[in-house]
Amino acid sequence: MYQKTLTAGWGDMDFNSHMRNTAYLDKSADVRMMYFADCGFPMSEFRRLRLGPVVMKDELEYFRECHLLDDLDITMSAAGLSPDGSRMLLRNEFFRQGILAARVTSTVGWFDLEQRKLVKPTAKLLEALQALDRTDDFRELPSSSR
After folding, report:
1. Beta carbons of 43 and 60 less than 8 angstroms apart
2. 91-132 pLDDT tens trace
3. pLDDT in tens, 43-63
4. Which domains, and CATH codes, for the chain?
5. Do the Cβ atoms of 89 and 43 come closer than 8 Å?
6. Distances from the Cα of 54 to the Cαs of 13, 19, 57, 119, in angstroms?
7. Interatomic CA distance for residues 59 and 146, integer angstroms
């Protein structure tokens, strides 16, 4: 299971003194990009390919509060993937002291920055997606490429 530990920072807090909803989305995106970098796709490679992940939908579920300076163990797994890798559901789960605090499920595609449309990933990027652990509710998705 891919996992990173991040800290809930000052800028992540809301008026109620717990982590704001968009901070969960930001940290999910950070963990996604860390995963791709660890698989040989740092930002410089995405720039070279003129390709990037684009989020089409996010779903957040909350189970426990997260507060300032809490260490959060954030996992990433695949909840869905099209056979060609053009569409995926990526799931991040946030654990505070070993207890599930939140879950973010993102519908993601690959955006060609030149053509300005959804495309299939490279073979190596598809391998990185296929290497992710799969959730219990994993499902095959239709392709986004035309």
Report:
1. no
2. 999 999 999 999 999 999 999 999 999 999 999 999 999 999
3. 999 999 999 999 999 999 999
4. 2-140 (3.10.129.10)
5. no
6. 25, 24, 9, 11
7. 26
